[in-house]
Amino acid sequence: MVLNKVVIAGVGLIGGSFARALKQAGAVRTVVGLDRAQASLQRALALGIIDSVGADMAQVLDGADLVLLAAPVAQTEAILAAMAPYLQPGTVITDAGSTKSDVVAAARKALAGKVAQFVPGHPIAGRETNGPDAAIDDLYLGKKVVLTALAENAAADVERVEVAWRATGAIIHRLSPEEHDKVFAAVSHLPHLLAYALVDDIANKPHADLLFQYAASGFRDFTRIAGSSPEMWRDISLANQAALLTELDAYLAQLTVLRAQLAAGDGSGLERVYGNAQRARHQWITAIETAEAPQSADKAD
Fold first, then answer.
1. Model's pTM, two decimal places?
2. Alpha-carbon span 203 to 211, nearest angstrom
3. Alpha helices, DSSP H, located in the chain
4. Residue stretches of the chain with pLDDT short of 50
5. Which domains are seen in the chain, by residue range?
6. Backbone angles phi, psi at 101, to 5 degrees
């Protein structure tokens, strides 16, 4: 499938990488960009990420096969509401939001009777850098994309979104919006909150300069995601508030246990926790490496 026209709302890392990958795969003829920041649009145009800058919404959506919303999740309803009057029957909209229940609710409100044309999605890929200059061709290669299709979605529309993501090299997974938000509260949203909290805590200490001077690779690796967009992660945290609070409470309980073991000098207790975590991480890394390993020619056949 070659898409004739794709519209990208948000031409930064996520949207820009999607456009780059589709172009590299020869899966799209023209890409139109939308963004709040004109500077981002002009930069995306200069980099060849998009072919034109959208202005009039009716013209932007005219003949569009696929629209990707790659803006912060809090903007979803406003963007969809602006598109709704001009949305033609042949156009499918998807998104790249890190939360899904709130996005689905926003889509139902903004699109009303046209909500069947919205297929929610979430690419599990990213970098700590932002903007059009951060976009790369292979961001999604071997990475998961979770689709949380609605009951109203036509099978052909879901397939169009799947095919587009497969063209970027992504692997498709399916979850319900509710399952998605519970899973990612634990393995994505909580880690971001923790990374931001740690860096903020150290930055606010009177001897922060000294601490940062001696922070090495372990600190850098642990806090890498604190370099992500604060606006985006503010929106994600609030959008998935209930599930994130549940995971944060569980983590606080774990910290309480560790503190008690440390205060009591319970070395064996600390080692049990550390050992279990090490084994679980090794198993996870092995599973990830196996899943993302390129297939041999024989296996591919």
1. 0.85
2. 9
3. 13-24, 38-46, 57-61, 76-83, 101-111, 155-167, 177-184, 190-203, 208-214, 217-223, 230-239, 241-263, 267-292, 297-300
4. 296-301
5. 3-175 (3.40.50.720), 180-265 (1.10.3660.10)
6. -60, -45
